[in-house]
Amino acid sequence: MKVGVPTEIKADEYRVALTPVGARELAEHGHEVVIQRGAGEGSAISDADYEAQGARIVPTVDDVFGEADLVLKVKEPQPQEVSLLRPQTTLFTYLHLAPAPDLTRRLCESGATCVAYETVEDSRRRLPLLAPMSEIAGKIATQAGAFMLEKPLGGRGILLGGVPGVASANVMIIGGGAVGMNAAFIAIGMEADVFVYDTNIHRLRELDVAFGGRASTVFSSILSIEERLPDTDLVIGGVLVHGARAPHVIKRDQLALMKEHSVLVDVAIDQGGCFESSRPTTHQDPTFEVDGVIHYCVTNMPGAVPITSTYALTNATLPYVLALAHHGVAEAARRDPGLKLGINVAGGRVTHPAVAEGVGMDYVPPEEVLGARLENAPSPDGAKVGAKQATT
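Below the sequence we write its predicted structure tokens.
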């Protein structure tokens, strides 16, 4: 199969979807890799680095989309990229379609098969391709929140960790998944007073052990959040429902409970945001103020640290990329039911139920579009073929 990697063109996006390690693995397995000129520069990867591992450099994005059967990206395709998609193309990237009906319709119109990193699941219903970016985003969220609390940036003017004789800042983290846990670890390291909220008691027990008593865990409810908001300096939202729009865990009227110039960081903004008052921002213009509260809602937080993010992303995606390249999307999804859950759009139809609900379109099971080969799932061992290949 011919695998193509274009340069990312979303604002302030410096990641690339494949490292030279990935290019070498694909080439060793007989696949052709084409990389747009300069695609890796934002991640300190040169064209020569790719060529040394068997990839071919092409000058334009049109060349990548025109040649490739499988297109690998980091972020959702921008309008000029959507126009280059063909019915025979498989696109593999972060899509976050539930809050994006216009993009979803354009992808359907393209006829391409679009597989979303963020809805691929493993055998334990975890999100293996979202996890590394969630870990990074969680750590960035605390760093960014601490920075935005500084007075010149519009914040209250409080140091997250305080100093002897002066109290630390209070940090509320809503959502105890990968985002929340990593945000908490950084906040604990900065010596803040940390409170992590989740509705899963089992997860709260795990976090309590992981934090070693250095943070408080709280069962999340409307009342428990409201009771803590007046004392909180920084709120980090990391709530996720697989494939769906994020629920609003803080409503607009609840902002009145917060201190003036406290900070909200919405890591769920790619899925529509978990604060009612959130709207997408960029690294160049990261914040806005609503009712005296600073909102940080950058849609590609990991893009700010592309060297870390790019390598973490390829480490996670490579087994699936190899599976798609070896077998094509239908057979790869038949072998791995978790990969099947990543198929969001195919044959002009929406093929993920949560996405369909989010955008108000009809849901069609992927097997109806891609054929009967998806209908009979293999044993769990059959889903591991890509992972084994990736370690060779």
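The CA atoms of residues 60 and 111 lie 22 Å apart.
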